[in-house]
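Following up on my earlier thread - several people asked me to post the actual chain instead of describing it. Fair enough. Here it is, all 193 residues.
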Amino acid sequence: MPRRTTTGTTNSNEALYAFDTARRAEHGTVCGVDEAGRGPLCGPVCVAACILDPEDPVYGINDSKKLSEKKREALFDQIVEKALAYKIVFVGPDIIDLYEEPGKLQNSGHLFQVVDIRAIDDLDAFKKRMDAAVDYIKNGPKAPGVSEIFVPGEIEANNQKKAQAEGIVYPVEVLEENRVLARRYGLDEALMI
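Reply from S.P.:
Thanks for posting it. Predicted structure:
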């Protein structure tokens, strides 16, 4: 997706809203996302997302590095007041270390959201774009020793197909433990080795 750029002139707002209008016409709602920070050695990383209201513009928005602190604070208040939606999250080292110590309890959460694609896009066109994206990923260059690139969920889906076709292999100890439990509770011992 192309990125919006502004020049810092008085036309920067026009450029921002023209860019957003073109993206909305093509894709529906546009949510701007950005981060700031250098990671756990320098403090938390701040991540923000915002959906601006095209009917109620916030004038003066530009690259934050091109604005004074006073101007940024004034714009922040306007954005919070006028935005259709926004969220700001600070991610500290206790979350960033997730991959360094996977066994450690993490201070993180997960959000799963379901969207009816037909509400925002043509379903067939969306599927074609997703198929193209998956093909692009799977056919990308592989690291030495890697024979295949998997997309999220693919390994699990392959394992499920294999289990449905071949059955699930249970260790004999598990089967015997199930038989003992079945006898204890008076259940039918229908398990076969």
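Helices lie at 12-27, 69-82, 93-96, 123-138, 154-166, 172-184. That should answer part of your original question.
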